[in-house]
Amino acid sequence: MTAPIDFYFDFSSPYGYLAAQRIEALGAAVGRAVVWRPFLLGVVFQETGSKPLNQIPLKGDYATRDFARMARRYGVPYVVPPDFPFHSVAPCRAFYSLCDQDPVAAKGLAKALYHAAFGTGRRVSKAEVVAEVAGEQGLDADAVRAALQAPAVKERLRNEVEAARAAGVFGSPFFIVEGEPFWGQDRLADLEAWIREGGW
Amino acid sequence: MTAPIDFYFDFSSPYGYLAAQRIEALGAAVGRAVVWRPFLLGVVFQETGSKPLNQIPLKGDYATRDFARMARRYGVPYVVPPDFPFHSVAPCRAFYSLCDQDPVAAKGLAKALYHAAFGTGRRVSKAEVVAEVAGEQGLDADAVRAALQAPAVKERLRNEVEAARAAGVFGSPFFIVEGEPFWGQDRLADLEAWIREGGW
Question: Is A48 within 8 Å of chain B by CB?
Answer without folding.
Answer: yes
